[in-house]
Specification:
212 residues; 7 helices
């Protein structure tokens, strides 16, 4: 009877993490939309801010549930491995939410969206969106091959980041008046790179959760 109750709580933990992952996917999607729009879309920004707040709250809820399962129940070794992985994953998901908001804050202040279209920033953003999506899916589906794919994709993101740095050097050489835009682009690219790192961490914890 106690074991059955524990399994139900583990399933609940699984479901709560999926919800938090979906929030992060939604935040990234809306952040990219802000980057692509020529107008300052305050509604989209407000939605990203609300999602960031919701991921913070969800992290605390999941953390409390994890601690309850560890201290109030009788987890076996595989249960402890799963719960430990979840605790690590929610930390990375919370940081993804934070950095999505950081990007949204920068993006809504950019006036020259036309210049952004001539950089590799959107290519990088699409890679990152896919990494977040697939890291969460690898957990949901218990798909270690998908998790490996996320980790491999991180190398491509690092290459694009270097490409963006080169593009910004060329842009400042061609037009010194774009200095502020260049700083914003580099900061956005750095935040995207960090989101890629957090997605990779999640994929690694998925492997640990299901394989050890």
């Amino acid at each position: 009877m106690m074991r059955e109750r524990f399994k139900r709580e583990l399933n609940r933990l699984n479901d709560e993490l999926i919800v938090m992952g979906s929030m992060c996917e939604d935040a990234i999607s809306k952040t990219i939309a802000i980057l692509k729009t020529d107008d300052s879309d305050t509604d989209l920004y407000d939605q990203v801010a609300a999602l960031e707040e919701a991921t913070d709250k969800k992290e605390k809820e999941i953390e409390s549930l994890c601690l309850k399962l560890i201290f109030s129940e009788q987890p076996v070794a595989s249960d402890l491995r799963f719960i430990s992985a979840v605790l690590k994953m929610i930390s990375d998901l919370e940081r993804i939410g934070d950095q999505a908001l950081d990007i949204a804050e920068l993006a809504k202040e950019i006036d020259d969206h036309q210049s952004l279209r001539h950089t590799a920033l959107f290519q990088m953003a699409e890679h990152i969106a896919l990494m977040v999506k697939e890291s969460v899916e690898s957990f949901v589906l218990k798909d270690l091959t998908l998790a490996e794919g996320v980790m491999n994709r991180d190398n491509e993101v690092d290459k694009i980041f270097l490409e963006i740095k080169d593009e910004m050097i060329q842009m400042i050489t061609a037009d010194e008046g774009k200095g502020e835009l260049i700083v914003d682009v580099l900061m956005i690219a750095k935040y995207l790179e960090r989101i890629g790192d957090h997605s990779t961490n999640i994929a690694e914890w998925v492997k640990f959760a299901y394989k050890g």
